[in-house]
Amino acid sequence: xxxxxxxxxxxxxxxxxxxxxxxxxxxxxxxxxxxVQLNQITPIYSNIEVPILNTSxxxxxxxNSNNNNSNDITSPxxxxxxxxxxxxxxxxxxxxxAAISSFLSPMSSIATLPAVSFIASSFNTTGTVINLSNGxxxxxxxxxxxxxxxxxDLYGRRFxxxxxxxxxxxxxILVAVSQNLTTFFVFRAxxxxxxxxxxxxxxxxxxxxxPPTQRGTGMGWTLSGSQVGPAIGPVIGGLIITYTSWxxxxxxxxxxxxxxxxxxxxxxxxxxxxxxxxxxxxxxxxDRKFIWVWFNPFRILFSLKYPNLLFAGLSSSTLSFxxxxxxxxxxxxxxxxxxxxxxxxGALFYLAPGLGYFLGSFYGGKYADFMxxxxxxKKNKMVPEDxxxxxxxxxxxxxxxxxxxxxxxxxxxxxxMALPIIMMFLNGxxxxxxxxxxxxxxxxSMSKYTGGDGIGGNYCIRFIFSAVGxxxxxxxxxxxxxxxxxxxxxFVLLVGFLFIxxxxxxxxxxxxxxxxANGFDVVDE
Length: 525
Hints:
Blueprint: H1 4-9, H2 11-28, H3 30-44, E1 62-63, E2 73-74, H4 79-83, H5 88-110, H6 116-122, H7 127-155, H8 157-176, H9 181-195, H10 197-209, H11 212-243, H12 247-267, H13 276-283, H14 307-337, H15 343-347, H16 351-379, H17 392-411, H18 418-450, H19 453-517
Antiparallel strand pairs: 1-2
Helix pairs in contact: 5-10, 5-11, 5-12, 6-7, 7-8, 7-9, 7-10, 7-19, 8-9, 8-10, 8-12, 10-11, 11-16, 11-18, 14-17, 14-18, 14-19, 16-18, 17-18, 17-19, 18-19
């Protein structure tokens, strides 16, 4: 049996191996890859008067990361030097900021669930109409990475963080003071548009500052915020509406947003080595500090033309779909079964999956890194698909089985409170053992060629499935029952596992084949 401690002791040598491999691949493909990537900037970021970029084979200079607003140029950095730009403490601070930022959007979405009837009463409408705002929220969550992921490549991570957290806070306060349904819906939508940016941009920050053998752990910490929000949001919302107005939920979110803005303004540095804007300025020989560049907001969907990224996107989408099948029955099924008549008591059921989400995000990231190191030692090279082996048991076994047991325990009212609570915890734990691995895979495997589009496209398709799950789960429960609905969700999960297993078996070959077909000079691994 492999000892994780022995593997951890060899981390530095493995990182050196990974770095040298990346450097060799980069040097072998420098001429062609640079030409392809630079030539792609013009049609994608189509500046009206911008001439064709200089595609000479010289190394592109790197901006000074210690100056957040600088276009100053320094010597190119190797991968190893790039990962050493920031101290361990600074990296942890960046991860902390990304994690609490990722907490805000799901908190905004889910915290209102116990308050639906109260919000409906305020606007003289029905709970069904108010629930439509959650569907709209999920749609805007899908649109968000299409906009902010390309902008973060163009202008930097810090720029996107500050813009989005500022307007998220403004949108939250406007939801709180809404006096009619129109303003409530509009500003709920803008809250999702700005608040969801931190998912994909946070993943890009992890890729900027950590080597591949440490990214899973960093991704796990970042995901802890986004996964805990859906679980503790209803608890906090239930507490608030039990003792005060639903509007206080959004006052609280505004305050949290301003705290994150302050932290980001003073402590979040630019982590990207060089932005696309800086490349444009360099190739135009311009002394301008800022250039506005048009971009295609749907270009991140083009990343899904690569089968390995499409498989990863479909797999993570089934996880998001199943999450709503797990959480939706709580208010409509669990509360009546156990005679939970006050919002706070029903909301406490969300703590079970919440604790699972929280603990799983840390374990899943570390285990994904462990698995990658293990296979680097076996193969003497890094293959990004190897980290996906860490999800085989939680994805292929734990999640489908716990979903089925959970659904039928509620349907037959067997096992009391204990059985569904245990199943929710195990399901939540397994889910966030999977997400860090898939997210890190999207970054590791393709970011050299697609920038932030790989992870952005993954989040876009994931949120589309979240919107579908939100829309069909309750009607499905009403028509065929919670048992069969959860069985259907388990089948969807098995389909998602099939996609991820195809990536484990064939992802490396597919990735290289389709990169070459799209003009990239890739060294066979």
